[in-house]
Specification:
about 260 residues; about 55% helix; globular; transferase activity; transferase; Cytoplasmic tRNA 2-thiolation protein 1-like protein; tRNA binding; nucleotide-binding
């Protein structure tokens, strides 16, 4: 197992993976019985595994949650249209209601149209802002109490590193939190905060889950890619680096807040 370096069988890995997510949900009190929970579903491995595991844990441990799939159609031809087909299949496979919100309906334009106007520079930044707003509006439409996303330990490490490089202390102090937006109408939760990307890939592969693995056609130009490559290089030196990196930065943030 990548996270602990244990030699375990496939079935034991499934149990360990699922139990770890369950313990994170319980120990952090992510949900309360009766919550309407919107799962940000892109069709990718993270959100697909999240939808599968959360629906399974909800059933096994009787969380009493009302789960929904929520997808955003950014209007990226050859990417999002294909991934949404995967989400529609997940809807049937997991028996969860699905809501799709689109940039075209919400804002009057698609990302393809925006890229034609502004070019490839900073388009991922624009898309990220609009996507978060779209998820909030979709969750509000579903009358959701919580919005969960598939951000994993690697994603959070990348975000932490990006905020350090940008000197964005405000975001640095909250980007590693497992729950954000508690002061807003719909808090966001990250049940995979401590979960390694490698383990999510392994789980999806061995479980033969139906997910979309093609990268966004605009993402190679994203600044985040540099942070991702840096962390991958460090992981080659020491495998469990991502979580250690997050822990170090969390301690740094705590010290900064306490003594500033």
């Amino acid at each position: 197992r990548p996270k602990t370096l244990e030699q375990i069988c496939r079935e034991c890995f499934y149990l360990a993976f699922e139990d770890e997510i369950h313990q994170i949900i319980v120990s952090n009190r992510l949900f309360i019985r009766g919550d309407r929970v919107a799962i940000g579903a892109s069709g990718g491995k993270d959100s697909t595994v999240l939808a599968y595991v959360l629906s399974k844990l909800n059933r096994i441990h009787d969380y009493g949650l009302h789960l929904f799939l929520l997808s955003v159609d950014e209007g990226i031809t050859g990417y999002r249209d294909d991934s949404l087909e995967t989400v529609h299949r997940n809807q049937i496979q997991y028996g969860l209601p699905l809501k799709v919100v689109s940039y075209k309906d919400l804002y009057g334009w698609t990302m393809d149209e925006i890229v034609k106007l502004i070019g490839l520079k900073n388009n991922c930044t624009f898309c990220g802002v609009f996507r978060r707003q779209a998820l909030d509006r979709g969750a509000a439409f579903l009358k959701a109490d919580k919005l969960v996303t598939g951000h994993n330990a690697d994603d959070i490490a990348e975000t932490v590193l990006l905020n350090i490089l940008r000197g964005d202390i405000a975001r640095l102090s909250r980007c590693s939190s497992i729950i954000t937006g508690e002061d807003g109408p719909i808090p966001r939760c990250k049940p995979f905060k401590y979960t390694y990307e490698k383990e999510i890939v392994m789980y999806a592969y061995f479980k033969k889950l139906d997910y979309f693995s093609t990268e966004c056609i605009y993402s190679p130009n994203a600044y985040r890619g540099f942070a991702r490559e840096f962390i991958k290089d460090l992981e080659r030196i020491r495998s469990p680096f991502s979580s250690l990196f997050i822990l170090f930065v969390c301690l740094f943030v705590c010290l900064f807040v306490c003594y500033s």
